[in-house]
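Can't paste images in this forum, so I'm doing it all in text. The chain is below; anyone willing to post the predicted structure tokens underneath?
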Amino acid sequence: MNEFLLIVLAYLIGSIPTAVWVSKTFFNIDIREYGSGNAGATNTFRVLGSKWGSFVMLVDVLKGVLATSLYILLPYYLFNEWDRTNFMIGLGLASVLGHIFPIWANFRGGKGVATLLGMAVAIQPLVALCCVGVFLIVLYLTRFVSLSSILAGVSFMIFILFIFNEKETLYRVFAVLVALMVVLTHQKNIGRILKGTESKVPILKHRDRRKQRRKEGI
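Text version of the structure:
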């Protein structure tokens, strides 16, 4: 099995339309016809709730991890760190491309953030863990999955370039591209956040009810 075939396989793995299959199998709807129209975890949170949104996010992350780890099928990359990192980036990007343009769902997919996270987990787990921390903190404070994704993507670049000071040039370029891609693919979300019309995910309901009761008691 050569590099080209693994790249194709990575794309096919990324193309698994988790949100579409979940929405059609369990709800008899196409998630792309509701909410923002994207077949990703953010829209699944918005339309189907936190349970299924979390499931879709987990599977989409695992897609990135699995696709990026396909290098293990070629023994050469087990012993060549520089080449391995570059090949892993190629595999990961193929899976992200598959998520955004899935062959199994008429090339209409999600924004690729969760699959990007899986790619980061496979290449540099500590950076990925830091980004997950940023995501969860922002989600807890705001309940905006879109804003959490944007800030996690931007923080990925900051971690790679400045905090962990990654020396691999291609990885540094990739980190910048990730931040740009996440911001560009969330332009509509940014607009809705600024207008105050962005939907919040249905989590932390008990916290919100407590706040509401405090307001009513004042």
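The CA atoms of residues 6 and 14 lie 12 Å apart. The longest helix spans residues 81-100.
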